[in-house]
Amino acid sequence: MKRFAAHYLLLPDVGFIRQQVVEIADEGYVRDVFPLTEEIESVEWMPGLIALLPENKIKNTEMFSKNISVFQFNLPIVSGQTFPCFKEALTASAKRGEVLFPYLFYPFDFTSMQPVAGTRHRLLR
User: Closest Cα to residue 9, out of 60, 53, 52, 43?
Assistant: First the structure.
């Protein structure tokens, strides 16, 4: 099990939420998400944005790098008060049998909440 934190976390069905920790199972999928309220041992800080994406959105990585559909909508930045809504969306994904994988996008423009020309993405493991 590994834990990563970033400036923002994106769940495409919900929006962006600030400073969250993503817990990843040994198999590489997202096991849990919780707020980063203080420095926690064994959490690796990642610059940029972590997007939680289902397998069907990341199968074709060539298309993914050229046309990142999850950023083509003006998604809201949700506050910590709506964190339960975020957790509900994760639970609903699990009930549908949808496994989410954490992708890091860096560098990332936090003003426009969009990738920049040099943004790279990689699966966190």
Answer: 52
Note the pLDDT of residue 48: 93
Q: Give the Cα separation of 20 and 36 in Å (integer).
A: 5
Sign of CA dihedral 25, 60, 14, 16: positive
Say whether 53 sits in a helix, a strand or coil: strand
Backbone φ and ψ of 81, nearest 5°: -70, -20
Start-to-end CA span in the chain (Å): 9
Below-70 pLDDT ranges, the chain? 58-83
Cα separations in angstroms, 113 against 7, 18, 87, 97, 107: 11, 12, 21, 29, 11
pLDDT digits (tens, 9 = 90+) for 67-86: 455 665 566 666 655 567 77
